[in-house]
Write a structure and sequence with these properties.
This protein has 343 residues and is α/β, with parallel strands linked by helices. The chain folds into 2 domains: 6-110 and 244-333, 3-Layer(bba) Sandwich (FAD/NAD(P)-binding domain), CATH 3.50.50.60; 121-238, 3-Layer(bba) Sandwich (FAD/NAD(P)-binding domain). It has helices at residues 14-26, 48-52, 58-61, 66-71, 132-144, 155-166, 187-197, 295-309; strands at residues 6-10, 31-36, 74-78, 82-86, 91-94, 99-101, 104-107, 111-113, 126-127, 147-152, 170-175, 202-205, 210-216, 219-224, 229-232, 234-238, 241-243, 259-261, 272-274, 279-283, 288-291, 322-326, 329-333. The chain has a 5-stranded parallel beta sheet. The structure holds flavin-adenine dinucleotide. Flavin-adenine dinucleotide is lined by residues 10-16, 35-38, 45-46, 48-49, 81-82, 108-111, 129-130, 156, 244, 247, 276-277, 293-296, 298, 336-337, 339.
Length: 343
Amino acid sequence: MPFNDHYVIIGNGPAGNHAARTLRKKDKDAKITIISDERVPYYYKPKLTNFIADEIAKEDLMVNFLNSYKAKDIRIRLGQEVERIDSESKTLFLQHMEKINYSKLIIASGSRARVLPAMSRYANHLKFVTSYTDVMAVKEEIRKAKDFFIFGGDLVGFKFLRLLNSMGKTVTILIYPNAFWPYNLTDNMLAQITESLSKFKVDVIVKDDISIIDDKNGLYRVKTQKGIEKNVDMVFSFNGLIPNIDFAKGSGVDIDHGILVNEYLKTNVDSIYACGSCAQIYNPSIKSYTTSIGWPNAVVQGEVAAFNLLGDHKIIESVGRKYFDLEGVKIKTIWWEDIDDEV
Ligand SMILES: Cc1cc2nc3c(=O)[nH]c(=O)nc-3n(C[C@H](O)[C@H](O)[C@H](O)COP(=O)(O)OP(=O)(O)OC[C@H]3O[C@@H](n4cnc5c(N)ncnc54)[C@H](O)[C@@H]3O)c2cc1C
């Protein structure tokens, strides 16, 4: 019986799905498996805020339904978390004690909310908008709630603030200069953002920090170090994202903030590639590593990782530099695009 490769992809976002499609186009016989710890098929994260506001239905959030994986003969395992990789025996250990063997592996595990050290002891009180699972846990509560407190001020945070405003909610935001990590907002930028937000019904707090959050009779009392006090229904944190890489620790794959890969998206282990927002990619032109954000970046990287895994030598386009708008402040950074629906 001929030996068919088993390509396994950890992650069901744009990087993982574009890797899987590319692998299938180039190799008709291989077994291809995508594993995701979420219980939902491939969906548009950028549309999560529209979904919260009921501007779109669940069907419009989906890129893929289950039958489209089947049509491409791609196996999808939902609700299954990878806990550990043994790169010697090429085995993945899943949380529910199952083991999966691979011949080649693509890590496309994306990122999760970054909680600032000052906020970590209040983590139980904080809500996030980083995934469908997060959103389903808070959607109904958001609809009923009136008063909100936001800590942070990354791109998604401002998007969420505008959404709450359009829903007629009352919002207070404490902007941390390093919320859009790894960038630091200067005093001048903070002043411009505050000015730009004045058109919304929002109280803006800058140059202050958390003092306490406590939970009383179903309301949160939020107090800042300068003594500002608010009673709110929900508290959200938007302080950027950090790569989901805990399961790769101890696997022999080199990691730093993300999974370290060269310009071909290959890790230090021959059979393992990484792409999308979990990867930290070597950029030969600046002789350093950069982490990428944004949907289009993840799409391109998924495709390139798949080509290279099959023996190609495509160099990932050095992460494109671009200006974008953070509430009127232009910041030069890596890609973040308005996405078009995939076909
Ligand atoms: C609310 C929101 C709005 C956004 N808006 C925009 C926008 O307007 N424009 C833009 O360009 N970008 C936007 N982004 C960013 C964009 O969605 C991400 O850059 C992109 O999704 C990254 O793709 P990825 O495939 O690398 O990772 P992800 O899409 O994060 O996918 C990672 C996958 O890995 C799975 N996973 C992680 N760990 C494990 C594990 N241990 N075991 C099994 N599975 C695991 C996850 O469940 C998920 O399926 C937004 C993000 C959010 C949260």
